[in-house]
Specification:
Strand order of the largest sheet of chain A: 4-1-6
Radius of gyration of chain C: 19 Å
Distance between the termini of chain A: 82 Å
Number of helices of chain A: 5
Helix content of chain C: 10-25%
Strand content of chain C: 25-35%
CATH architecture of the domain at 3-117 in chain C: 2-Layer Sandwich
Structural class of chain C: alpha/beta
Order of helices and strands of chain A: HHEHEEHEEHE
CATH superfamily of the domain at 3-117 in chain C: NADH:ubiquinone oxidoreductase Nqo5 subunit
CATH architecture of the largest domain in chain A: 2-Layer Sandwich
CATH topology of the largest domain in chain A: Alpha-Beta Plaits
Largest sheet of chain C: 5 strands, mixed
Shape of chain A: elongated
Largest sheet of chain A: 3 strands, mixed
Number of strands of chain C: 9
Chains: A alpha+beta, B alpha+beta, C alpha/beta, D mainly alpha
Strand content of chain A: 15-25%
CATH class of the domain at 3-117 in chain C: Alpha Beta
Number of strands of chain A: 6
Structural class of chain A: alpha+beta
Oligomer: heterotetramer
Radius of gyration of chain A: 25 Å
Number of helices of chain C: 3
Chain lengths: 138, 382, 167, 365
Amino acid sequence: MAWISKNWAMTGIIKGFIVTLKHIFHIGNRPIVTVQYPYEKMKLAPRFRGRHSVDQDACIGCGICESNCPNGTIRIVKYNGRWFPEFNLGMCLFCGLCMDACPMNAIKMDGGYELADYSRESLVYGPDRILFKKEVNK
Amino acid sequence: METDELLINMGPVHPSTHGVLRFKLIMDGEIIRDCKVVMGYLHRGTEKLAEMKTYLQFIPYTDRLDYIAAMPNNYAYVRAVEELAGIEAPLRAEYIRVLTMELNRITNHLVFMGSLLLDLGASTPIMYGFREREKALQLYEMLCGARMTFSYMRVGGVREDLPEGFIPRLNEFIKDMEMRIVDYEQLINDNEIFLLRMKNIGVISAEEAINYGMTGPSLRGSGVNYDIRKLEPYSIYPDLDFKACVRKECDSYARYLVRIDEMKESLHILKQIADTIPAGEIITTQKYGIAPVTGAPTSVMPYFPRIFTPPEGEVYTRIEAPKGELGFYVVSDGTTKPYRVKIRSPSFCNLVAIPKMVVGLKIPDLIAAFGTIDVVLGDVDR
Amino acid sequence: MNAAEELKQAMPAAVVSTGMQLNKPLAIIQKEELLKVAEKVKEMGFDNLSVITGIDYRDRFEVIYNFFSYKKKENLVLKIILDHEAPAVDSLVSLWKVADWLERETYDLVGIKFTGHPNLTRILLPNGWNGHPLRKDYDMETEQFVTMGEDGEDIVSTDGSNLLRRK
Amino acid sequence: MIANAYELIVNILTAIGIYEPVYGFFQSFGLEYLLRIIIVVVEIVVLLVFVLLSVMFLSWLERKMFGWVQSRYGPMVTGPHGLFQPIADGIKLVGKEDIIPASADRWIFTLAPFIIFVPALLVFVPLPFGDTLILSDLRMGLIYIIAISALSPVSILLAGWASNNKYSLMGAMRAVAQDISYTIPLALAAIAVVLYVGSLSTVDIVRAQEGTWFGIIPRWFIFMQPLAFILFLIASIAEMGRIPFDFQESEQELVAGFFTEYSGMKFAMYFLGEYAHLFAVSGVVVTIFLGGWTGPVLSPIPVQITSLVYFIIKTYAVILFAMWLRDTVPRVRIDQLLNLGWKIMIPLALLNLLVTSFLLTARVI
């Protein structure tokens, strides 16, 4: 109880009140920082590692990404007569080793982050969903 | 009157066990008579996984140990392998590594502060902490493309160079952070209720703390002037000006203050790095004689050998992670995969002291003491 | 003179050989003498037991203790070689409390028995788990399932057919 | 002289000239009491709707306040600035499965949520919302309020016991310990005011606070009894069970305390009860210490409306303070709270009572 006689004025709590009050009225660079997510999205950094996409002209189906993947996410499958990787994103660590290992720089990881789905099967992204064609500037 | 002891299973699903930890408490009313810690609910067999991955492939797994501060995990592992193979990273890479690690120390302590105060019932500080952490995470996203699980370090360097405009944004962050820390201190440090909850709670003396294997800020809160960055300097820490933050009170409040001080020290380090970071390579060329591929279509990807075999040997390296001493014992048998990786995780060893601290106290004190130990269950269970 | 050689001088019978593990002094010691050596090591000022590592080398087990001294700021590595059949070594719980969990972990994952440990039970894996995962001969094919029993204790079984699992 | 809302309604009906014919209509059947019942029921319904709307608004306000303090927006999506969020929550909670644990005492488990809601509503009976806007001006109104609000731990104890959960039981025990130790300083602080007024009636207490000193300072008891006000405020926050004194729930320690096992509509009842209690207790604080409905009279507007506005403004000021406090401070520990109650607040309240009665006897005030 000696404690209370020392701290009866509760100055610490009052200081705290002032801090929260400053936030309520946005005094001195204390603005609202959150965004209304589904309606308003934050800008991703250019290096952001999201869903994979594969340049269909560059990919040679060599399987180096498959052997480099730590988790067995990648499988090389046949698609339209050529070999392409297939990503099981349910297992993916998004570490970017496949992107780094690709000798043709065909794999990119810029495909966004809203990857929730209803079944495990739909998390397997086959070539039909990940291939893109690089636009050539003439 | 006859009374009975009550067994309470606190966890594995409980709001304040920071994950899936379980305390088996024998209670006498509100007082804890015995405390047993049950863990393993998040055990993923990381050490076994390491034996089946190549040295490079294991790096993403180290992210998942202490996912609040993943960069030091990356670094500790990479450094162990580098020592094993006798590789040295270029100076710029070391600067970038220390930069990211100190930034991670700040984010870790912000989460610590927030979750501790949330455990004590104040819900505002965690939002403030996450507000600033978000800015740091955006820096990480800018740097390596991920926000928490970076897998950024590589044996012999780092994965990507600093992007354009990184240092100015870092300076902005430092300036912002300095103002915010003042806010935290005003909001929390002198709060009488906070003091009531923290002072003389979870007391552990210096000798006991050492005996119980506590490390890091938790040990420095017990008055042991110990910081691996100072005692066994690694990377560029000898060139940097900083001090180990020590408090002598041995209680929860001291452990909290140490971390707030450390945030300031880390900011100080970041400032020095932002001013003095040298130009140069970001990944070593000494071992393999292969220059990074420059001018490749995506020039952010330095070349690294896919198959990497360090010589036979074993090594134990440790670094000062935000939570304490993080060590990797790596044994190589000369193949492409490590023979054995042992992870000495700070959370696991700091947790040993919890039963000692809390017996005789009450459940709210257990939560306060446990909060100041700063445990991440990914790190405890591995 | 480094700490390992100092140790050898003090207890020549117990220390088999000394050397360096990169930059840390290393002493390989007799397993019977571990407790005495550890006491001596603690006397020498190595107050921090950093980590206990158990390694399965197929023909032998090695247990490695990493020590650090806060006063002298030195490292010391102790190594014990155990035979592969029934690996057992003295527990250090009486000297370092942290050894309690580190030894339990080593027991759990590598399967080395620490005699004299007050509560040598599994720590990361549930009680009743078959095998020690970090042994090289660990059977990784058999799936093991953990359920919670009536009294809250874990029950391990290899039969997962009655578990609620989405195929 | 109009004493309460019933007479007010009768007066209004008389003024617009429909009371007499309607009364005559009922009288022709010999059913005068039916009219009285109808009027009382209308009053109760108006009060209930008002309380429920306030509760909804309060739960919205609480989240908004949290948001503002924490650099967030708070609810924004449902309706303008998320104003309809409580309705969406209500629909969600009603739609949830109503789980009763297998080993729970089903009857008590179901009964407990209703028991907490009833006292929270009964407190409103002698609470003057404005000049004459009072259901019933009980002569022992203050004692009634304290007695009724002391009922809520009964419900909490029932809920905690019936849930058959250790956390619930501990929460319930804490709630009871807390309530016992805080009802005493609450009552003692209020008695200091009662001594001065000489009446337990809430209306008399408010009337005693009309007027000003020197034309500026209102004659509120907060200025005459500052110590009693602080004690009463702390004790009532403890009674409400809000941070820093929310031991009955103490989310981080006891998961959710006594309503750990509750879900769906029963959970919603606790939610409603909590906010109704918040509003009621804030109203009591305003009535006793902050002058109730008193304030400058603006002559063309009926005094009932201005007084209602004054009362609501003051009540929301107290509520906002409680929310602000909740946003700022952590929770104290249960034994520290009991220490504060028994060792500091009760002696201080007694001292305050002693000094007040001494001064009153000496006719200084």
